[in-house]
Every structure is written in structure tokens, then in C-alpha cells.
Write a structure and sequence with these properties.
OB fold (Dihydrolipoamide Acetyltransferase, E2P); 2 domains; 31% helix
Length: 150
């Protein structure tokens, strides 16, 4: 279930008269109830069968498609395009912090039937992790093996 799409990308060398086609993009998906560590790039076709497809449709309509046409619009100055590019880079930098562990809030023995991760060895711990630049409500339970890797 995609919680949100964060980025689309396509060849910048494409035809300036080309029509927008969402199939030419890959979308970075933040999956519901999972930390940003598990974000994945997915195709439009794959996401069209998901429960959260409406979120992707809105993202395409409000962000990707306008950016696509703005980049091909001769009336938009290079300065405006550069400002848009700078803002996108700042957004990417902010998002890159979402995978940085800010603090561990709590711990518990790992549940064998954990719905969010593969069960670790019995007796291992899970940690409630607050991620950098994210609120406490976005904290996730992570297996001990994942925390050690960080």
C-alpha cells in the first residue's frame, strides 16, 4: 500500500513536443507502516493495481505533470527552472534525512508474528525508532538486525 509517491524521473532529452505519459516514469514509494528505509522505486503499471493508486494519481496531476510541461515551456525562464530545480534538490536533501536514526524511544522483545518485518531469531529485540526530520507519530518498530546495520 503506497503511502505517498515522492519522485518521478524521465529522460531530460525527450522531445519538447512530447505528450505526458505516466508510464515513462518511476515513482519512489513510501510504504504505509514502514520506515523510509524501505522506500522502493516502482512503475506506474505496478502501482496502478495498488490500494493507494489515488494518491499516485493526485501526485502525478499536481506535481509530475506540471513539472513535465514546465520544463518544455519556452515561456518559462531558465532562472525559474533553476529555482524549481533548487527547491527539488532541497526537498531531496530533506528526504534523505528520513533514513537517519534520530533516537530509539522504546524496545520490546521481537514478536514472531510481526506484521511489518520478517521475524528475527527468538529472543531478539525490536526498537521503536524516531527518524530525523520526522514526527514521533511516524516512529516505526525496527528489528535489532536493522538497528545494528545503521
Amino acid at each position: 500500500l503506497p503511502s505517498s509517491a515522492a519522485e518521478g524521473s524521465v529522460d531530460d532529452d525527450s522531445d519538447p513536443d512530447a505528450e505526458f505519459d505516466p508510464n515513462n516514469f518511476q515513482y519512489l514509494v513510501k510504504w504505509q507502516n514502514w520506515a523510509h528505509l524501505y522506500d522502493t522505486w516502482e512503475s506506474y503499471e505496478y502501482l496502478s493495481n495498488s490500494k493507494g493508486f489515488k494518491k499516485l494519481s493526485n501526485y502525478i496531476k499536481n506535481v509530475v505533470e506540471p513539472d513535465f510541461y514546465a520544463a518544455r515551456n519556452p515561456d518559462i525562464s531558465p532562472e525559474e527552472l533553476e529555482q524549481n530545480s533548487i527547491q527539488k534538490e532541497l526537498d531531496r536533501q530533506n528526504m534523505s534525512q528520513f533514513v537517519v536514526l534520530d533516537r530509539v524511544i522504546a524496545c520490546r522483545e521481537a514478536k514472531a508474528d510481526s506484521a511489518t518485518h520478517d521475524a528475527d531469531e527468538p529472543g531478539t529485540m525490536e526498537y521503536l525508532c524516531k527518524w530525523e526530520n520526522m514526527s514521533y507519530k511516524d516512529a516505526t518498530w525496527e528489528p535489532e538486525s536493522q538497528i545494528i546495520a545503521i
